[in-house]
Amino acid sequence: MALHRVVMILLAFTIGPMILFSSCAPQKPQTYTNPIGEGIKMGDPFVIKYENTYYLTGTTNSNDGFRIWSSSNLVNWEPHEYAYQAATDAWGKNSFWAPELFRKDDKYYLAYSVNKLKGNSKDANFRLCLAVSDKPEGPYKDIYTPWCDFGDSVIDAHVFIDDDGKVYLYYAKVGVIFQPKFKLTGEIYGVQLNPDLSGALTDPVLVSKQEQKWERPEEGRALCNEGAFVFREGNTYYLTYSANSYDEPFYAIGYSTASSPLGPWTKAKENPLLKLDKKIGVSGPGHSCMTTSPDGKERFIIYHAHADPNKPSGERTVNMDRVTIENGKLKVVGPTRSPQPVPSGATIK
User: Fold this and answer.
1) Which of 95, 112, 165, 283 could cross-link 99 (Cys pair, CB 3.0–4.6 Å)?
2) Given this model, what pLDDT does residue 281 score?
3) Domain containing 152: what range?
4) How far apart are alpha carbons 211 and 226 in whole angstroms?
């Protein structure tokens, strides 16, 4: 028995410290690396959070609708079926683009743009449409097709609900010019919506057009502002937007500020927020939205970039980086391609 007690004491002195050391050893910080989503390919990504779950959709199946993913941490995404798949008799026939989700009066809505005509016609006739569901992941069914039709070709619907409950719609009116040389064009407009979302309560107001030098590259094929996203911080409204053509390397993101939802808006002198970075392999960062970390303490910008930075095209990946507001100015820690700390409050399995 004496020998047994000696052995037990020796084990206590050797194993005990090892257990203590192991339990107190610092854990390796959890990180993520762009692009996120383990190879998800989409343009115009949009993320929204309901309760403890994030939902991600975007331009995925442009012939007939939009797929959707869910996540608890913004890093690992679980695929679902279509959020919206057009019926054979749907108003829209082609180019289902840039879906966005929002919640109002216990219903979930999906706003999107689509071409009324089949094929890639030079006479493309784009309009906005609105669909509704009882669940954030869908399926969504059309209720207004087209929606808020002012007779213009428009894309990139974005809905902002202010603190007073008033609802605003932003969109890009698109077209072409032929002189002095062919260019695609786009300008962002905004309207206040009826409380029941059935249509516009006000006339369209010009929100954003091509003004700054970075928005007018000579070698580019577009003079375009598009992809609006609006949020409010205190008494200031922020609008992020994209400029140039989505399939060109200098597609980039800028922002404006205003004291009311319909402006007037003032573009930041320090634009663009995110742009081409050849050194780290980022091309065409654009069409963004904002969301917060699981604990609500951090803000993130979600955006797409070209899947192959050496061959810009419509094939794009999903990326996210941190955003701060310093003295009223937006600051993005990015674009990044190195490991970044996971969003605060998130756990990566």
Assistant:
1) 112
2) 97
3) 43-341
4) 13
Can you give the length of the chain in residues?
349
Q: Cα-flanking dihedrals φ and ψ of residue 347, to 5°?
A: -125, 130
| Percent of the chain that is helix, strand, coil (3-state, to 5) | 5, 50, 45
Report whether pLDDT(220) > 90.
no
For position 149, what pLDDT does the model report?
A: 95
37 in a structural domain:
no
DSSP secondary-structure letter at 299?
Answer: E
Query: Which of 347, 325, 323, 348 is closest to 335 using CA atoms?
Result: 323
Name residue 124's amino acid. A
What does the CA dihedral 172, 177, 181, 184 come to, rounded to 10 degrees? Answer: 20
DSSP H stretches of helix in the chain? 2-24
In angstroms, the CA 302 to CA 293 distance is: 12
Residue 25 lies in a domain: no
Whether 61 has a pLDDT exceeding 90, the answer reads yes
Q: What are phi and psi of 227, to 5 degrees?
A: 60, 50
Number of structural domains, the chain? 1
| Confidence band, pLDDT 50/70/90 cuts, at residue 15 | very low
